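Problem 12. The chain below contains 198 residues. Write out its predicted structure in token notation.
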Amino acid sequence: MKKLLVAILSLLVLPVAQATESSKPDLSVAVQQLRQAAGRWNVTTTRYADNGAVAGVATGTWSFDWVVPDRVLSGKAVIPDWNQSAGMLFYLNERLFTLEMAQVGADGQLVVMSGPPGAASRSTPVVALPDGRKMVQRHTRFRVTPDRFESRLETSYDGGQSWKPGYHQIFVRAPVKSPDSSGRMYHRTRPQPHVPLT
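Solution.
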């Protein structure tokens, strides 16, 4: 009787274990997005005024390097014409099943945007403004290829019913610098044995 009871219980437990294993989220899309972002980029940024008109255009550089392979990228954004620079993290939060971006600039304000790993958009939590309004910002990547993509930053003051443009950016992968081998000769010296100075 005990053997029969154990057999029945094992049949009940096995499907639950299999369901748990098979329901693990697929993070491959998020990993691919991180891999595509890694490297150095030349970026053209268009900034928009509150009325939607173009307020300025500038060029700069973005660079992302691995901190934890396939999980965490650290980066730096520089726009010399606007005297702007910022530090960034782009990372996969496996516990919350989100792909997140964090950025902090000269003002010291940390902005964190998150979204599902398979999505192209991430947004901030609701931010209460001093004038009583509530703001949400959204960042979206689109037209993505291995060496080029575009992004836009938008702001909503009505809970996401409408969005105002903030920035539009075009990212083009910077060429990788290779050693100059145009006829130059390089001399390699062998390591010399250590001689004590006594």
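Discussion. The first helix runs from residue 2 to 22. Students who got a different answer should revisit the alignment rule from Section 12.3.
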